[in-house]
Specification:
Chains A, B: Residues 251-394 form the Chalcone/stilbene synthase C-terminal domain. The structure is a homodimer. By secondary structure, chain A is of the alpha+beta class. Chain A folds into three domains: 5-15 and 107-242, Peroxisomal Thiolase, Chain A, domain 1; 19-100, no CATH class; 249-394, Peroxisomal Thiolase, Chain A, domain 1. Chain A has twelve helices and 14 strands. The first copy, chain A, has helices at residues 21-40, 45-62, 106-124, 148-155, 174-190, 217-225, 238-242, 283-301, 306-309, 322-332, 340-349, 356-366; strands at 5-13, 19-20, 71-72, 134-139, 144-145, 162-167, 197-204, 229-237, 249-258, 266-269, 276-279, 314-317, 375-382, 386-394. In chain A, the strands form three sheets. In chain A, strands 6-4-7-8-1-9-14-13-12 form a nine-stranded mixed beta sheet, sandwiched between helices. The longest helix of chain A has 20 residues, at 21-40. The interface between A and B is large, with 67 and 67 residues. Strand 10 of chain A pairs antiparallel with strand 5 of chain B.
């Protein structure tokens, strides 16, 4: 008997309010300039002013504009205001930019992660009547053992809930997490002890790793694109979905592939102060080149031919950045409407790493204009380069 | 149809030779003493000598003796020899103990990890005729994205091999990895695209994180107990196992549980120079207190009563340290023979974190005196505290 797995109960969470992108661009430039002063040690006020002007110009030029992203959660930037007055407020991860331009050591940032995630767990599960069979904790921004999810689980005496860490897989990590959930569900049936609900808990506290020390075009893109994001959703068996859920996305097929010769194009590595990202402008080209074969084989796994269904498909694509969305639209000659959720989530939130695609899934399930039976092709990309895809049906 | 999963093809790997525990105890004490001199800055040769004598005494007193562990792979300690002469050789992660007593920053240690794991992959898969369906990369000692496993996979044009990271779960991580493999196998059958072989690739380069800066009894235990370990094995479907494997371990049941009120007893956290471990001497007591219920329910899941099978079971227990093994033997009133593989692997290798239990599985499958049909109860423990268990049958 095939075991169906349906994603539902998408619940976004927040640590703080979204900050307007205009504000973030301005203050990001200001903090960059302070750190440049710490590095370059200008000998006159004039030289310092020149640094400020040049830095603002670079951030204006390379930063992701407010036309693409309206606001982002970036909790490390909350209340930051630099006016060169005495009461300037610096990012909490960079309390003394002139003296310690790399900011807090990684261990202190991890403590902030623990505290934040702990609060989100308490809040999210406050009214939870029934413990899940599993919680898969997804993150590429905070690692500690025991994790806050393990601590929460044991504190609640959820003795039969199994916690699994899905760490350090970057923007595409919702896909291995869903793949694991589908596997744990099918595996539980195979071992004769069927599970009913597996929670997937994403915590991407990206702003913990803001790196004001590297004033380069690529890093300015990272600093103005990525956002914090938090989300919990569940993978249900057919029976448990039927017992009370209104809508969801049923998994029809899944695929992942590494793209040749692209390993240097996107990297995410541990450092002494922050995790460090390198993201090259070539990423959209690599993806555009390889994506067609990948998608054809993904839909074929579910018994479809891409040509037959393409014009009616929703493309729930991870908005790594505006360029990736544009390349994919062109590659498949899509109508704007077919990718609108990707653009909307990017505009409303920025790139929230692994949480971005679940936000899109959430929007699709909530939108009454998308009928049940609609096929949804979802994709994300991350270091490797890794391409992940899933064909789902709205149910 | 239930999907059987059988573990087989256990292949230990090495970066270097095992170093006699006597040598490691001596040189660990010497390096600790150098770092203590860097911290305390003694003002006379006499004061420095006193530090050396006291440090040696502490390491002798608290370190794990050569009676329990004969040798360990500890690649960061290779060739280390401190005789107070000019040609002293320091650990490669601590090239200037007097000037930089915390040693290399974490980013440089991660580069060593990448290089080492890359070499092991090339060597292990040199004669591999067929690419696996999946590789699950297990580690709590090195994270980078793309990982060396991803880089290797794409370099080999293994386009249909899916890589999953199982990171930061500590000593018990073989269990979630096998649970994932069992899930991916069952999930592939559920989606109508059955897999045949899922590789589990463990790389625990523990000596990268040796911390000579904290001269405490608990840390001396860590420093003289843990070892590097590397292993690949495979999870096979019944059909692919039958097509050529001689012996293996079939999974009958699996369980994991968090132990209440024990979250502070073992921790593993990121730091600026190394990942930092805290391990309290209370761990064996927590485990002994909770283990009986856990094991009873684990064997019940497979349709057995513990009392009926206990005296004939092999206990393949993670030798976290000698104390844990002693507590478990007493708790279940086991014959020494029932746990001998745990003692032997500890003696021959030390605690290799997540790789230790797969070494025990390997030894059991290789040992012709253990007949097919033998039931094997395997357990491991790690941060949480998390207890993991699996009932298997030798096939």
């Amino acid at each position: 008997m095939p075991v169906s797995v349906i994603l539902s109960d998408f619940t976004p969470m927040r640590l703080g309010e979204g900050i307007p992108q205009e504000t973030l661009l301005r203050e990001t430039a200001n903090v960059f300039a302070l750190v440049q002063c710490a590095i370059q040690k200008p000998e006159s006020q004039e030289a310092a002013n020149r640094i400020l002007i040049e830095t603002r110009e670079m951030v204006r030029h390379y930063g992701v504009s407010a036309g693409y992203i309206k606001q982002r959660q970036a909790n490390a930037m909350e209340n930051v205001e630099i006016t060169d007055e005495e009461d300037d407020i610096y990012p909490d991860i960079l309390p003394r930019p002139l003296q310690q331009p790399r900011g807090l050591p990684i261990s202190e940032r991890m403590e902030k992660f623990r505290k934040a995630v702990n609060g989100l767990l308490e809040q999210h599960y406050a009214d939870c009547g029934q413990a899940p069979d599993d919680i898969i904790h997804v993150s590429c921004t905070g690692y500690m053992s025991p994790s806050p999810v393990q601590q929460f689980t044991v504190r609640n005496h959820w003795n039969n809930t199994i916690v699994t860490h899905n760490y350090h897989m970057g923007c595409y990590a919702a896909f291995p997490a869903v793949r694991s959930a589908q596997g744990f569900m099918a595996g539980s049936f195979a071992l004769g002890r069927p599970k009913s609900r597996i929670d997937i808990f994403h915590t991407e506290y990206c702003s913990l790793h803001l790196n004001f020390h590297r004033l380069t075009p690529n890093n300015i893109v990272n600093m103005t694109l990525f956002a914090d994001g938090f989300m919990c959703y569940s993978a249900f068996s057919q029976d448990s979905f039927d017992a009370g859920r209104q809508n969801g996305l049923e998994i029809l097929s899944m695929a992942e592939r590494l793209i040749p010769d692209s390993e240097q194009e996107m990297t995410w590595d541990l450092g002494e102060n922050y995790f460090e990202m390198n993201l090259s402008p070539a990423v959209p080209f690599f993806i555009a080149e390889h994506i067609r074969d990948f998608v054809e084989s993904l839909v074929a796994m579910a018994g479809y031919k891409l040509g037959d269904i393409k014009d009616d498909l929703l493309f729930a694509v991870h908005p790594g950045g505006p360029k990736i969305l544009e390349h994919i639209r062109k590659r498949f000659q899509l109508a704007a409407e077919q990718m609108r959720f990707s653009w909307e989530i990017l505009y409303e939130n920025g790139n929230m790493s692994s949480v971005t695609v679940p936000y899109i899934w959430h929007a699709i399930t909530c939108d009454d204009t998308i009928p049940k039976g609609k096929l949804v092709l979802s994709m994300a990309f991350g270091p490797g380069l890794t391409a992940c895809g899933m064909l789902m049906e709205k149910v």
